[in-house]
Amino acid sequence: MRSIKFSLILCLGGILLISGCGKKTPDETQNNNNEASSIEEILSRASLDDELKKMLESTKSPAREATSHDKIQAALEAGEISKEEAVTKSIKASFLPDEVEEEYKGAESSTGRTSLNRDLQWAINNWDSLDDKTKKELEPYVVSPDDPKYFENVNKKTSFNFIKPAKAIAGMSGPLVFSTTWFEGAGKIYYWEVDKVKAERIKTAMGKAWPMYKALLGMYPDNHTKIYYTHTGSDYGMATWKDDYCEIKIGNNHPEKYIEPVLAHELFHCFQYYLSSTYIESTPGSDWITEATAVWAEDFVYPEKNSEFDHLDEFYDSLHKYRLSIENDEEYGSYMWFFFLSQYLGNDSHVNTVLQKGKNGNISDAVRNSISNFDNTYAEFAMYNWNQVPWEIYQDTPKYPDKNPTGDSTQAIYLYDKVDKDVPIALDLGGMKYIYHYFDSDLGRVNRVKFDFKSPTLDPSFQRQALIKIGDTWHREDWNSISEKEYCRKDEAERVKAVILVYSNADLEWIQSGVYNIDTKGDCVVKKKGHMKLSFASAGGGKTIKSTLELDETVEYDLDGGNYIVTERKANCNSVDTASADMEWMGYLSSTIFGNGNITESYEVDGNNDIRFDINDDGKSGYILTGLNAKEDAWATRVTVIEGVDDGPAEKGGCGGFWASRYELKPEEIFADKIKGKRIMAIPGGSMEIEFEYDLP
User: Fold this and answer.
1) pTM of the full predicted structure?
2) At what angle do helices 259-275 and 349-357 cross, to 10 degrees?
3) Which of 24, 207, 272, 517 lies deepest, with the highest CB count within 10 Å?
4) Residue 191 forms beta bridges with which residues?
5) Among 661, 556, 569, 551, CA closest to 5
6) Residue 110: CB partners within 8 Å, gap ≥ 6?
7) What angle (nearest 5°) sits at the alpha carbon of residue 529, between those of residues 527 and 531?
8) Which of 62, 61, 63, 59 is nearest to 412 (CA)?
């Protein structure tokens, strides 16, 4: 607790003014010893608190090996194979992984989702144009599972993995069937006798999901739907449209815990297909929206099963990429856009809206136009995806996982000495970027930090926000409207430990790019604000004086001298002086002098300031000295008005009144980071009210 004495000079007819008091940045060729940018280098060199270390470590990409489907897709995009060849190889890779050519062999899918669904739909859509050889290769996977030519039936070695092949073959003479009449339209579930209990689970799941989808979309498939509990290769399930009905396959060769959510997922596809032929065509846009909303539907129907969590690693590792991407099965993780909207908007109607608007095939327009204020909402989506303390906003049953942006969606910059560097920004369509700036704790190395963005963000789709850690406290700021931001880390209130810039591009048609500069060179001074109001009133001998002086001041901390010095002030004054007398030869007369004015002055910090805050080196005691008038003595306008006589001329002068004499601060006026008080003092012939508040480091 500081013990401070507060002194003011007493003067008459004048004025007293208190014054005197994750990854390398795009410039890979730069080898700057003043910064570190790899996660390992930062962790080994940085003086970071445990929270910042954990945050940085969490940006590492999750382990993911390329699957056979990834390699086949890459070969297609490189023009090495045709679409027909890619579909054939991909479908066979799902059902016969051991027979994949060596160059396309890869890891198994960890999410039970690959390109199989869209590959099968493409084959069905283009069946008549395929040559006989391709048809023969694909037929075992395209026909329905109760057809003798189905893969499971002709490839005995891959028959049901939990019953003996002989029993499975015997069952092929006629799988048991029951019709479902508990939802609109005709529906049948096909299953082996040994799977009757699981088929009942499918039936129950249908009974739950069907009316929910009907209410959400305002329609339902009024034809028949076939559901098979059968072998489904590497995927948990699939749904395809065949002529005039929807066919669902749920994998009996996968963990049983997925039965209900997979049914919810695939049944949603049936509603999509029935809603519009656009969703049957298997284009990149339609594949993205159908899979993203179908994964969303898993959580919509079964929020407690959390099957959708399987796709979060791929989502958080691809935030920087094209939002409608289907590369590496990223469309499944994109369910998060719809999951976010449900929570942010507080309803699920947006899913129906976007599917309705997407019927014409322009999916990016449908996404943008399905909600109002898309740009700002998308920027909020980027903030939700931060998903770390203290902005863990997502809610789920029982708890949303501890997942956050990883890999190339992040960039880390540790600044531990004087640097001046440009940081380029390039955001893909719908891309997001999280740039971590960490600063050395040694104020002798980095005490000034300046971000220079050149200008405010002019395009509403290209937004930047900041998460700032000062001490142990985080806060969030919108940095769209600013051109620059500077911190003086000598000031404890501005001693930033970390600044995370969150960039987002809500434009789904154009890439956004830019550059900002970060400068830690030079020195800085601590600046604080102070305010003082002095009100004077006196009466006697036929005279009354009322005057008010208000001072708004900038206070800098002189680190070497240990003083608080006002370097800038704005002053405003109003006064009224009235006098009256009974003049024998003129009768009774009264006069009033009206004074008002304002002034702005600045002062050099040169160690010889007349007015300063002076705190002793031990930081516990000290005093505040004030002296001198304003630099400009006559800064107020004074006009004399005499009753019955023409007004006198306007004259320049000070702001009239008696100002304060010295007094000592009371303990209750002294705080750890400021002095603040209000008091009324008696003076000869009147009173003085003083109100003040000065922030101190």
Assistant:
1) 0.79
2) 40
3) 272
4) 176
5) 661
6) 64, 310
7) 155
8) 59
